[in-house]
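S., here's the first fold you wanted:
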Amino acid sequence: MAWLQLRIDITPDQIERFEEFLLAFGAHAVTLEDRKNQPLFEPTPDYTPFWDHTRLTALFDADTDMEPLLEQLRSALGYDSLPRHQVEILEDKDWVREWMSHFEPTRFGQQLWVCPSWKPVPDPDAVNLMLDPGLAFGTGTHPTTALCLEWLDGQPLRGQQVVDYGCGSGILGIAALLLGAERVTGVDYDPQALEASADNLQRNQLPADAMALYLPGDTPELSADLVIANILAGPLQQLYPTLDGLLKPGGRIALSGILVEQAPSLLETYSASFDMEPPRVKGDWVLLYGRKRG
């Protein structure tokens, strides 16, 4: 069956009331997205930020009479007129299969491939990372993850102790293991991310003890050879003492999830204890990396 999709442009203070009323009026689902390309810092567990310019999308049955529903919504919210909005017919699709069909094997650097677990590998002799991201961030398709994977592919990782901070799907930590790292510690605020990392570790036929997974408050003291953190600029500023403390002298750090204009501030912060290299750039995003002074 087809659906009707109501898209309406609102501000953060309007979200709760619009969502409440639309669900009460029969919406099957309500989703939110950014309509101005505004980056958000990774939130703490007790805080959910929203974009200044938010687009709300509500999904209704195809036979819903939208004109009286919109009038009822306007009246219930007490507005003279609703914010800018439009109603569209949305064809029925299996959206999971639609996304899966567009996730293709991709090479990063000289030897590393990230391959959807449901598709054949293009080069059996390469380093093939089999991935099913589940509910966690990280497939390699975003420039921030791609920058990290390309950088890892060129690093000497044999026998190294690595920390993947903000591990998401586990893609970076598992890539490090497949490229020769001895052991990885994965850290993430989201328990679903830790579950996805564990599943992908098993999917790549790696030993369960090759990657230890922790919530931030449970992370043990470490003296790692390499820390990689693909998060966002705000948390990376706040995490400087933490990430610095996880590395031994001479250890390497790589930071991603950073917009070009955010790089100078982070370079200044991390240069206090790291010899930082020139950034690597991909579109609007950069990777910062360096070595801890001893």
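And the second, which I think is the more interesting of the pair:
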Amino acid sequence: MLGIAAALRFWALDRPGTLVFDELYYVRDAISQLSHGFPTIWPDSEPDMSGDRATAFTADPTNAVHPPLGKWLIGLGVLLFGPESGWGWRSASAFAGVATVGIVMRLGWLLSRSMLVACLAGLLLAIDGVNVVLSRVGLLDGFLAMFIALGALFVWQDQLALAQRFRDAAVDPKRPLPVVWARPWLVAAGLAFGAAAAVKWSGLYPLAAFLIFVTIRDLLLRLRSRTPRPWSRAVGQAGVAALLTLPLTALTYLASWIGWILAPGGWGRTPGEHWFPALVRYHRDMLEWHSTLSAPHPYQAHPLTWPLALRPTAMYEHRWADGCPWTECVSAVSPLPNPLVTWGGVFALGVLLWFAVRSVRVRRASAVLTTARHAVPPRLGPAPAPALAIPLGTVSGFVLIGYLSGWLPWVATVSRSAVFQFYAVVLTPFAALALALVLGVACRIGALSRAADELGFRAPAAAELQGRRIAAALFVACALALALFFFPAWSGQPIADWFWRAHLWLPGWA
């Protein structure tokens, strides 16, 4: 899966040979930031980076409206391959895209305990059109998606460790479950989400959502264990979680500004003034800029349209006829979705919501049944299939929170016109996980088979199960074929105009 991801992200990475879309800002900021410690002004806005133009920045600071970490990461690729080539501008983004696939595979295995489901989640993300394109351009959002997925992985590792610790501590029901301080995975999550916020402030949304998830789950574990003082202990545990994560998140964010702090010539600096009040003032100006941006854009897309990718952000298009073997040639870079992956992921998220609701109802019914009986008869027959480490309802809720935390805040707070479809790249890891989990449940793969039984789903007959698995295999094969079909439009490959128009399935894709 990582090989497929790398092939789709690194092949012909230097095409197009000029800056595309907002690379004009982020790449040039990254190059000047390497030299000065902070972004500086360039003499023009031409996308050509050939020859001396690749280092034509001035020494005058510019007002960069996003934190520095994403530009430092772009700069790593520039250091390796130089500023004159797309390999320099885009290699770090491509590596982040491949790393995100690896993170999702690991998370998929921990959620499902199935290597097949883990590989399926990685494959679906590897061929997701939005993720592929945002891994092939020198923008910030691919790094943001990687750090958010990494933070989610660490949160789930923490939940697995905490669940095991509570199971061990619940042997004596008269003793309350302890408030746990040793939570290294939660510390790691604070670092990861701090890095996400240091790429774009929207990385704070998933941090808040997952901290709420951790708090609620901790309370539910204590209530179900029937140990003393569950509410007060849960409040104490929530305070511990905040103390373990939030200071490290803030320190990680602050560390990304080290170049601006150490170099006194950055934007907003006044000679003789301490850096801290200047940084506070800079952030106030950044917040004002983001909250008042109202310039219309031809590719603006309301967040409600993001899940179905109704208005992709065309980042590059060049047409020519001379020397073209067809009537007209086109080279384009547009994050058109892989329809089966994107639309299938939205459907799968709806199914996960159903799983989460059904699990609550089943658990309540089970509690009533257990209370009514004095003893549960031993299970007869063959040993049951292995169980998930954490119930499927909780797994479903976790994936839903990851997806919604990157989407709903935009739906609720967007007040400017210049928001774009490609911001939805942070949703793609969770959509891939949702689709892989739903296919795993439908095909009764590994521990997901027992999870389906626990939710009260009817076990399919052998012929029906074989049919489901054949259908799932055909679905994945068609998704792979669509990835090959759309890849020329994702990668700027020269194609005939008629072939380009064959990719524009919806009016908003033009």
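Why I say that: Residues 367-381 have pLDDT under 50 and may be disordered. The first helix runs from residue 2 to 10.

Talk tomorrow,
H.
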